[in-house]
Write a structure and sequence with these properties.
This protein has 427 residues and is of the alpha/beta class. The protein has 2 domains: 2-51 and 363-402, Urease, subunit C, domain 1; 53-357, Metal-dependent hydrolases (TIM Barrel). The protein has 14 helices and 18 strands. It has helices spanning 77-87, 93-109, 127-139, 161-171, 186-203, 222-232, 245-248, 251-264, 272-278, 294-300, 323-333, 339-347, 351-356, 380-386; strands at residues 2-9, 18-23, 26-31, 38-43, 49-50, 53-59, 112-120, 144-150, 175-176, 206-211, 238-242, 267-270, 304-306, 372-375, 390-395, 398-402, 408-410, 419-421. The strands form 4 sheets. An 8-stranded parallel β-sheet has the order 6-7-8-9-10-11-12-13. Bound molecules: fe (ii) ion.
């Protein structure tokens, strides 16, 4: 007896719909028509079924603090950092847990079942680290949470950071972070990348740094990150987040760096919702967009993702943790409007970040985790266009979230013509 059958599922790139049979948390069978008995059946109705969304870059310690104790009036990255500095001393474990768990519920309802969150290790009590380690444990049946030890105030600029980062890793934080462009000098930034990569290599951990989140075209700490990846044999285990300076960089240098990223399998993560609002702030007109070169990354076969970064915090007032909104913004800002480009950006919120996070059992093949999302759309492009409704979210073979189909009733041609339809049914 199967635990769950998902019938009439449309898988991107396949002509016929399929049924998925789930058992013991895995996809046990996949066929055009399953006849096996099951404890529960749901009908995808010919809609798109995808492996879950993966948010590869988030800040769960600061989420849902918008307006406390005050608003970021300038809306800039640096006022955001000082505002977070005002919030930090007053943080308590219960408040962080409450906000993080609420955010996780929003994320699950929107089909995200894995999140990599940075956690600021700059507080001497490591309050956020303790809180998010607890949240990681609590949400694990529903969502995979990875934590990055993030020295928000600079690994060398904050004299307490080296000891606190080591303590956070000892406590069980998964990944080593950094912020080289925020160190006092360029050379401090370079040394921070080298030191943090060595720490990760010694501990057998992955690296994910906020790297070159600046409009300064000369900021290219990614070069050191690439070089350390090669030197330490960490191919595929290192990620550069943001990389916004690459937007403004000389094409020759950008071209060289992209080639090296491909060669050393350094992953890239762009945060379109945040960087379209934070970058170019010192510009008059024209204003730079500040998003890294994801179109060129796609063309070169670099594993790139787009991620949420923030929801209602000192840096960003908006958001509801919707990865389709992230893809929608990324598509516009990076002008990925070609048919294949639009379809590819769907990969940037699913399979690509799953690879960056090294998620085991991710996908829709037999034997993979029975984790999937039924969208009220026929294909990935329509899902992004509509920021489609998430009809069912399934985790390890159990339905963990349901949303009623969006249906409109229209009678503008009179009562006789009253008709019900969902937006995705329109011609
Ligand atoms: Fe970030």
């Amino acid at each position: 007896m199967l635990d769950l059958i998902v019938r009439n599922a449309r898988v991107s790139g396949e002509k016929d719909t399929v049924d998925f049979g789930c058992q013991d948390g895995r996809i046990a069978e996949r066929a055009q028509r399953l006849d096996a008995p099951a404890r529960e059946e749901i009908d995808a109705g010919g809609n798109l079924v995808t492996a879950p969304f993966v948010d590869s870059h988030f800040h769960m310690d600061s989420t849902l603090t918008y307006g406390k104790p005050r608003y970021n009036e300038s809306g800039t990255l640096y006022e955001g950092i000082s505002l977070w500095g005002e919030i930090k001393p007053g943080l308590d474990v219960e408040d962080i847990e409450r906000r993080a768990l609420l955010l996780c519920r929003w994320a699950i309802a929107k089909g995200s079942l894995a999140i990599r969150s940075h956690v600021d290790i700059g507080d001497p009590a490591l309050t956020a680290v303790h809180a998010l380690l607890e949240v990681r444990k609590k949400v694990s049946p529903w969502l995979d949470l990875q934590l990055v030890a993030f020295p928000q105030d600079g690994y060398f600029r904050d004299p307490n950071a080296p000891a606190l980062l080591a303590e956070a890793l000892d406590l069980g934080v998964d990944i080593v972070g950094g912020i080289p462009h925020f160190e006092r000098t360029y050379d401090d930034g370079r040394r921070s990348v080298e030191t943090l990569c060595r720490i990760a290599a010694d501990r057998g951990l992955m690296v994910d740094m906020h790297c070159d989140e600046s409009d300064d075209p000369t900021s290219h700490h990614i070069e050191t990150l690439i070089s350390m990846t090669a030197e330490l044999g960490m191919q595929g285990r290192v990620t550069g987040s943001h990389l916004t300076s690459m937007h403004s960089m000389d094409n020759t240098l950008a071209d060289k760096l992209l080639g090296l990223m491909r060669e050393t399998e350094v992953n890239a993560i762009a945060c379109p919702l945040i960087n379209i609002t934070l970058q170019g702030r010192k510009d008059t007109y024209p204003k730079r967009r500040g998003l890294t070169r994801i179109k060129e990354m796609m063309q070169r076969g670099i594993n790139y993702s787009v991620a949420h970064d923030c929801v209602m915090d000192p840096w960003y007032a908006g958001g509801s943790h919707d990865m389709l909104e992230v893809a929608h913004m990324g598509l516009h800002v990076a002008q990925m409007t070609g048919v294949h480009e639009t379809a590819d950006i769907f990969n940037a919120i699913t399979v690509n970040p799953a690879r960056t996070l090294k998620l085991e059992g991710y996908g829709l093949d037999v034997g993979c985790n029975a984790d999937m999302v039924v969208l009220q759309a026929k294909d990935p492009t329509e899902a992004i266009r509509l920021r489609a409704n998430r009809l069912f979210v399934i985790r390890r073979g159990s339905v963990v979230s349901r949303t009623a189909p969006v249906v409109s009733e229209v009678s503008f041609l009179g009562e006789d013509a009253l008709t019900s339809f969902s937006v995705s049914e329109l011609p």
